[in-house]
Amino acid sequence: MKIENVHLITFSPTHTSKRVGEAIVRGLGIENIKTVDLTFQELGEYEIPTTDMALISVPVYGGKVAPLALQRLEGIRSNGAPVVLVVVYGNRAYEKALQQLDAFVSERGFKVISGGTFIGEHSYSTSRNPIAVGRPDADDLQFAEEYGQKLLFKIQQATDLEHLYGVDVLRIQRPSQPIFPMLRFIWQLSQWRKQGVVMPRTPQVDANLCTHCGACVELCPTKAISMGEEGCVTEKEQCIKCCACVKMCPQKARSFDTPYAPLISGNFKKRKQNRIII
Ligand SMILES: Cc1cc2nc3c(=O)[nH]c(=O)nc-3n(C[C@H](O)[C@H](O)[C@H](O)COP(=O)(O)O)c2cc1C
Ligand code: SF4
Ligand code: SF4
Q1: Distance 213 CA to ligand 2 centre (A)
Q2: What are 9's strand-pairing partners?
Q3: Residue 231 — pLDDT band, cuts 50, 70, 90?
Q4: pLDDT score of 235
Q5: What is the four-CA torsion angle of 8, 54, 159, 171, rounded to 10 degrees?
Q6: Boundaries of domain holding 221
Q7: 210 lines ligand 2 (CB under 6 A)
Q8: How many domains does the chain have?
Q9: What pLDDT digit, counting tens, does each position of 207-216 carry?
Q10: From the CA of 44, how far away is ligand 3's center (Å)?
Q11: Does residue 86's CB lie within 6 angstroms of at least one atom of ligand 1?
Q12: Tens-place pLDDT, residues 80-122
């Protein structure tokens, strides 16, 4: 069968989910691509016809799909169009994210024909606490393109939509994870809970480095930053801790010193593999 258009829908404050989605679409080699980036906007009412296909690529926050991504996807609907689901996570774990996304799109009328779990540099990664630095790297992107080619093959093999079979994303293979670092991570979290460790709610700004250029105001997905007389101010309630402002401040004036960063950096060193189910 032939797909008329592919709708690449992403939410991607630090661009890894978007880059993975774009690489898959390159591999698909279908000419008509409609890219919808929900990092700065709601999708609104968006109906995908059965002649088209959707590819949704979103990050994992706390083992689930980033809540704002789901909120922005709320208006998506179809009457049976195929969809490919991709969750991108920072080398720790994606837990229930893929399953959650599957339930979300199935309720809205889609047929899930494939799923992928990919690694992206962790939002909290810094030079002091590196986590999956530079991912998706060249190997990841090649894997993603090859995934796109396999998807194209699956689509071409199907005589019609009825024969383009769905998958059970629960059957996707989990990446291997050494047991001791994971137990250490869980033990440390329980200690923090007992001790009542307070986590930072927003990134900090170094007033000596900030030039008041306003770039962070523009690239914050939730408009949590405003520029006042004293420099930029971050609204706690609106900040989703995505670290886009930290990673993209040209002066490196912003930092997010969460205790999670050394903990994840120390315990999830082993490179995890991207996985797909077709
Ligand atoms: C608030 C928050 C929570 C996160 N939780 C997880 C997690 O549970 N597991 C994980 O492996 N990575 C986690 N990450 C890392 C992101 O999933 C990862 O960096 C992803 O590549 C970011 O996607 P983006 O570049 O499209 O914004 C989290 C990041 C943030 C900001
Ligand atoms: S992007 Fe950096 S330098 Fe520019 S206003 Fe924001 S914190 Fe200051
Ligand atoms: S202020 Fe918060 S929500 Fe806005 S870009 Fe920075 S970390 Fe993300």
Answers
A1: 5
A2: 36, 56
A3: confident
A4: 96
A5: 110
A6: 178-268
A7: yes
A8: 2
A9: 999 999 999 9
A10: 23
A11: no
A12: 999 999 999 999 999 999 999 999 999 999 999 999 999 999 9
